[in-house]
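U., I forgot to send this yesterday:
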Amino acid sequence: MRTSARRNRADRPGGIAVGQGVAALLAAAGLLVTGMTAAHADTAPPAAATTASPETDTPSLVTGLDEEVPATGAAADAARGHLKAKKGRYHIADTSAKDLTTVSTDSEGGKETVRLQQKYQGVEVLGGQYVVRMTKKDGRRTVTGTSGNYFTQLKLDSVTPKVSEKVAVQRAIAAVSTQLGGGPLRAPAKGEKLGTTPLTGTAGDVTILPQGTGVLTRHVTVTGTDPADGTAVKQEVYVDAHSGFPLLQYSGIQTFGSTAAASGATGDAAEPADWPPNPAGDVSVVNGTGVRYNGAKADLNLYKDTKGVYQMVDYGFRDPAAPFTGPMLKTWDARGIDVSSASGVWPSGAKTFTSDTKDLGTDFTNSGAVDAHWAANKVYGYYRSHFGRKGLDDKDGYMYSLVGVTANGQAYNNAFWDGTKMVYGQGGGDYRTFSADTDVVGHEMTHGVVQHTANLVYAGQSGAINEAIADYFGNAIDLEANGQSMDDPDSGLLGEDLCTTLSPRECALRDLNNDLTTAKDLVGTSYRGDSGGVHLNSPIFSGALWDIRKSLGAERSDQIVYRALSAYMTPLDGFTEGRAAVLAAAKELGATKAQLSTVQGAFARHGIVPGWESKLGTDTVTVLSEVNVAGTGVAAGGGTYALSRSNEDGSEPYSVWAGSSTGKGAPHQVSPNNGNYNVYASTDGKNVAWAEFAYDSVKIHVRPLAGGLDKVVDGIGANVTSVKLDGDVLVYSYVNPRTGYEQARYVDIRTGATKELAPNPLSVTGLASVRDGKIAYAKMWAESDGYKLGVEVYDTATDTKQLMPVDSSAVVGIGQTALTDDGVFWVEDGDGTDQGQAAVMRANADGTARTTIVPEAGAKSLYAYQLTASDDAVTVLTLPPATWWTNETLPKLYQVAPDGKGGAQRVSCNRGDQVYPAADTGKRVLWLDGTTGETDLVKRDRPAGKC
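Result:
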C-alpha cells in the first residue's frame, strides 16, 4: 500500500483518539456520549428483533416488524405517525415535522425508506438521524423496521447562542490556524507578504452536539490555503455557542488516499453558466472514441455543439423525448488549476474538454480525460442497472469531473469527492493522472452516493465505513467495467493501474483480497491524523465486505451492501452498527441461514463481533483513562501534571485538574467549573496557569497548587493557543487575526506587567517555553530580501533579547523551543526537500555553543516535529511522511540525552497516536495516547528503547 504524495500539513498530531460505536465521532473529539438506559423492546411484536442503543433510549435497530400504517398520504407522515403511535418503544417525544424533518424518501419495488432528521427546538442534532422502512403493496402500507440514532437525553435551557457569528468565525479560523501551525514555523512563499490570514470562515447553522444533555454550537466551515505550503484547507469546526471554544473540527474532503492537498476550499460549487447549452433545441449526442491509459479503445458519449465542436459531455442515459431532464456527465479540463481553488468551489479557468473530431487524440489519453469520462459512464450505469439508482443523488443531478489539478504547480497524486464533484490530480513521478484507474473513479463517485444515502460522517469509525464502502463499490465497478473475474488474484487491488512503471501489485494502494486487518489492529488516531483513521482503519470493514462478496457472489453481496447503506446506516454508525446493518439487510433480502452465517463469519474474521471494542496492549502506566477532552494538551513539572477534563458524558465545559505525575492518588480540580472552557493548563509544580474561554474574551488565570486565590493576570480578545508558566513568568500565545500566525505575550504574575514579544504586529513569535526568568520562542521577521526565521531568548530580568546562532537565510523551519539548565533546545529544518526531516539543536542562552543533538540527515536522524525537555532528557515527537497510513507513520515519541550522546530511543512501543508530550522530572514524560481506541493520559519513567 503506497502513494507518492506527502501528508497534508493539516493532519497535525494532537486531539483525541477514535472512540467506539455510535459515539465514534464525538469520542474522537472528546465529546463522549454516556451510556443510556436500554430501549424498551417489550412493545414490539414477538417476531421483531430489537437492538438497544447504549447511548439513547431509542433502539438502534428494529427488524421483523409488520405493523400497518395509513396507506394513503406521504410516506414521511406515515413514518412519523408510526413513531408517535409506538412511543413506548421509540421514546421519541416530538414526532412533528418541525422536530423530525424529512431528509429523504426513497421508493422502489414496493419498498419505502424514510430518513428523518432529529431537531431539538428547531435546531439540528449532529448525527441524529432515524430511518423507518416500510412496504407498500396491495393497498396496504406496513412498517418493517427502523434504525439509527435519536438522542433522547437532550435537555437544553436555551437554543439561542450567546456567541455571535463573528466571534465564532474568528475562533474557528484561529483554531484551524493553530492546527496548521502545530509543527515548525515556516515563512510565506517567496514574493508573498505577511499581513492577512489565508483562511476564511463561513458560519452555518446552529447545531447541537449530542453529548450528555446536549451542547449548543455554531457550525463554521473554514476554507483557504495553508499559510506555510499553500495546500488547500477545508475544516468543519463546531464552536461552543456559550463560550466560543472550538470543540470539534474535522476535514470536509473525502479522498482516495490520505495524502497531501487532500483537504480543500469549500463553498457552494456554483453551476457553470453555460449549461444547458441550448435549452430550446435538441441535444446532439455523438458516439465518439478515445484510447484509455491501458491502450484499450473506449466508446465515449460526446456532445456536438452548434459550432461543430465535440465536447466531453455524456447525455447517453437521457430520455430522448426530454433531452434536458436526464443525467449529464461532464468532464472538465482542470490542468494548471491548483487544488486549493478546485475544492468545493468552482475554479475559474476550468473548461470542458473539447475536440474538433469525435475520435479523441493522445492528449485526451495522457490528460486522463478519456479514462475519467468513460469510467464515469460505467459508474452511473452500474448504479442504475443494479439498483435502479439515478446518479449520485438519485435525482439525475449533474455529475462533474475535474481532471488534472495540481498542488502548488507540482504533481497532485490523489483524487477526492468534495461534496459536489469529482476532482482528479494530475499525477507525477510514478503516477498517472488519478482518473487512470476505474476503481478510483468508482471510489470517488461512491462517496457521492454515500453522501446522499447514509451520509456517514467522514471521521472516526463512521468515516472508515464511508471509505470501506467506497473501496468496495469502487472495486466492484472496476471489475464489471473491465470484465475482470473475482477469481483473478489481482481482483482485490485498488489503484493498481495508476503507475507508469510499477507492476499492478507494486502500484496498488490496497488489496481487498489479501487484507487481514482486524479490529485488533485498530489504530487509535486523532482527527488531526487521517480524520480519525478513515483510511487507516477502513480495511477492517472493507475486508469483511469483500470476504462476503467472495463467498456469496458479486450480485448477491452488492445488493446486500447497497441495501445496508441506503436503508439501514445513519451518519454516526460505527463498526458495530455497520455490521448490524449488513446482517439485517441480508436477512431482509432473503439470505439463508447458511448465508447469514457466512456474513457473520466474515465480520468475525476481521474482529468485528459483539464486544470487539476491547483494550489493546500497552507498555505504559495509565495515569487517567478516557480523557474526554479535545486538543487542550498536557503539562507537567515538579512531579505534577495538569490538564483539562470534562464529566463522564462530556456534557460539561472543561475544567483544569492536577495530580501527581507518578500516577498515584486522585487528581483534584484547580479551575472553577463555571460554564466556560478552562484549557491549555501549565504547571511548574507550585502553580497552575490556564486560559478561560468566554463568549467575549479569553482570560489567563494562575492559582497555587496548594490552594489559594484564583487570580486573573491578563485577558485578550484573540484565540489563545498555549500557556507556559515558570515561577513569576508566564507566557501565552494567541493567533494574530491579522496574520493567522501565533504571537507571544509575556506576563509577570507578581507585578502584572505585560509585554508583546513581537517587535511589531506583523512579526511572528510562537512555540514559546519559559525557565528561570527567560523565555525562548521561534521568531519570524521581515528584512529587505524576505522573511527570516530564528530562535530568540528574552531575559525578563534584564529586558534584553538574544538571537540564537541560526542561519536565518538558509533555515526553512523553526519548531518548538525548550529551556532547561543545559540551555535552549529547538527543532530546526534546514532542508525543505527531505520530506520533513529536521534536526534538534541546542545552544547556551547567550547564543554560544551551538550543538546538534539530533542530526537532520543520516542514520541517527528523526522526523522531528515537536519537543519537550527536562534537565535530564529531551523528548522528541516525530511525524514521518505518510506514504500510507500505518502505525509507523503516526506521531511517536523518542528520547535523547541533552548532549545527544547515545542517539535517540523510542519512549514507548504503543500503537496509535502519541501526542502532547510533557517532560517532568528526570526522564519521565507524560502524553495523550490513542492506542486503546480511547484517549488516555499515560507516562513512562524511562525509554522503552527499540520497538
